[in-house]
Amino acid sequence: MKTTRAQRERLKGFLDQMLVTLGRSERRQWGSVYVRGLLATSGRKATASMAVRVSDGNVQAMQQFIGQSPWPWDPLRKGMAHRLVEALHPVAAWVVDDTGFPKKGNHSVGVARQYSGTLGKIGNCQVAVSLHYATDDVAVPLDFALYLPEEWLEEKRRQKAGIPKGVTFQPKWALALALIDRSLAWEVPRGVVVADAGYGNITKFRTGLAERKLLFVVGVQKTTAVWVDLGNRMNPSRGCRGRRRRPDASGDVGNPISVAEVSRSWPKERWQRVTWREGSKGPMASRFAAARVLPSHSYQHGGPKEDTLWLLAEWPETEAAPTKFWLARLPEDTSLLSLVRLAKIRWWIEQGYQQLKDELGLDHYEGRSWQGWHHHVTMTMLAFGFLTLESLYIKKNFWTALAPADGAP
Known about the structure:
Structural class: alpha+beta
Distance between the termini: 39 Å
Order of helices and strands: HHHHHEEEEHHEHHEEEHEEHEEHHH
Number of helices: 14
Radius of gyration: 24 Å
Largest sheet: 12 strands, mixed
Number of strands: 12
């Protein structure tokens, strides 16, 4: 990344503010060098190539800072979250997702043959769960958690990788809730939690969000079973607030049916064409419909009853049946446009992953330890945060430059 003197000064100010949590001056120094190396280096972000791209680089010192220096990453991530949230408002969503880091060997912490959405198949990789803060204009990562397959918690592998004793196996949805809990503890402004069907299908994930009094819009598979909420069959934004019926032991509302069946039963006039954003090739639009339903899985298996939720479905005009489905814990007067906008806001995250990997080397870390992985990811987040602030600064000053002077027509 080519920089001007003014940009270098803004970067220095940003890093001076953020890296203060590292304490010792030498840690702050090598943290600054590492981030500048990430920003200055094209191609693969090997420490050696980063060191030669900055005037004060030193391979050994940078490797020691990332792999061996025992600085905690949570305070730095918390500080970043607050700094970025100040510039990004209003919040629209907290987006949960995961991404794969392809690896050739089997010694990097957490690496295994496992499914990766990045690869679109089972492959040799690490997988990380992430939480992002998203507005209608931009999204930034708040936190990452490395997913550990159970074989990585065997004592020999745990010790070799430096995995703390308190770290236990957790499925991805549980890691996501842990990230959410951390952001709640950091007092990051709450957004509507958005996730794909890998998380939305998990009843414990949805009930965990509800227990935390969080709103959400999550994808689900077409086979997800629900009861149609007979006491509140309505379209979005009609303001109906009837007393809702719940199924009881007598089964007075019949058997649950799949969301695919429910959506296909809706009358033609319920389906509306909605444009949710402008894409690079024109408006992004499709047909959608929504109604209130009651998920049945938890109730049928003796668990807690879920609240009545919105079922949102997408039925492209070129398809023979609805193709995508979401469950949403949002107020009854939520508009169809708002439901669609939140369901589709995840596109920001794929764009962010691409920049984090291709431009900043999120998945380029060559070390093998638990601590080194978390340190590298944190520095990559810091570089991404600066680029985000720079884009907002440039945009703001561009429009300021175009604004008429006081008194001008």
